[in-house]
Amino acid sequence: MNEKEKQFRFQDLEIWRRGAKISGKLFQLADELEKRRLFRFAEQLRGATLSITNNIAEGSGSFSDTDFANFLNISRRSVFEVANILMILSNENYLPAKMIQPLLAELEEQSRMLSSFRRTLKS
Question: Domains in the chain and their CATH numbers?
Answer without folding.
Answer: 11-120 (1.20.1440.60)
